């Protein structure tokens, strides 16, 4: 495939990616990241079309080359910016703008001075630098990154280095290096651009799909209002501790609590105020928990707390501290300060427990706390010992 055909393939490839993205996001509201990436691909498609028509008489070279490369720089810079946006680094815009202005100015100066050599050096180094910036954004959080993200980051970095290598070799060894001539370098560089288009294009779409799927899976086990595990998520966290209870060692405690008279909050102040109260209560409770503890929202205003390696007396002390903290931390509403109390039932996991028997025992303690006047902590053994 000659260079002209490769440039035309790059233009059509970027146009096809724009079409794929259009239908991918057709029925959804586009995020800023995807919008930036879409504009980047449109710029690259327009740039490669301009460069394809250079020397054909359709668009004069003094227009097609400076304008085509300028638009190409914008497209690749925006593609790197979309990667930084996806990495939640939103301060990329101003530095990128100034770098773009500098890059376009340098290229045009090189084009005026030398129409072949210097512009090749400038374009290769500029494009390689922008692609490397995108690879660096993908590499953020490497330890927690998925294999797909790591692959796209490594592939982008290697291909970007190949693009930049052409500029470096033209600058340092104009006649080539051994059997690697300038023509071979040009072919390799064009192939690298083609692979970058395919790898970054479909890789980015796959990463977006992966992120959406991950969010769907997260929402299946996380309560959207309080951002703590829902009933399903809490049971998943509880399962291994039920198994460990069959082995000798420190017990694991379960605390079940419910906000007292919560309906009056919704009736008197509205559901938004009730949502604020729930979020505030969760934050209050988390301040009295260890990193290994787990808080989950079971249903409505009923919450459960898993306290690994905690005996019943210590678990009761934790529940008591939370009860006092909730009572002494009114939530500011639009019309008044909303005070809340909570009732707690505390138990520990036994060797023969199932999820049903464990929660039944904790719930019996909770109901005893509510029957005893609310705003108190009741241990499960006290319930079983009651006449």
3D structure, described in words:
The chain is α+β, with helices and mostly antiparallel strands and 387 residues long. The protein has two domains: 3-220, Rhopdopsin 7-helix transmembrane proteins; 231-385, Reverse transcriptase/Diguanylate cyclase domain (Alpha-Beta Plaits, 2-Layer Sandwich), CATH 3.30.70. The chain is built from 13 helices and seven strands. The strands form two sheets. It has a five-stranded mixed sheet, with helices on both faces. The protein has a two-stranded antiparallel sheet with strand order 4-5. Helix 1 (3-24) runs antiparallel to helix 2 (32-52). The longest helix has 40 residues, at 182-221. The mean pLDDT is 84.
CATH architecture of the largest domain: Up-down Bundle
In percent, how much strand structure appears in the residues?
Answer: 5-15%
The CATH class label of the largest domain is Mainly Alpha
What is the H/E string? HHHHHHHHEHHEEHEEEHEH
Cα Rg: 31 Å
Low-confidence stretches: none
The CATH topology of the largest domain: Rhopdopsin 7-helix transmembrane proteins
Whole-number mean pLDDT: 84
Report the structural category: alpha+beta
What profile does the largest beta sheet have?
5 strands, mixed
- Work out the helix count: 13
**CA-based shape:** elongated
Binned, the helix content reads 55-70%
Q: Please give the order of strands in the largest beta sheet.
A: 2-3-1-6-7
| Secondary structure: number of strands | 7
Count of discrete structural domains: 2
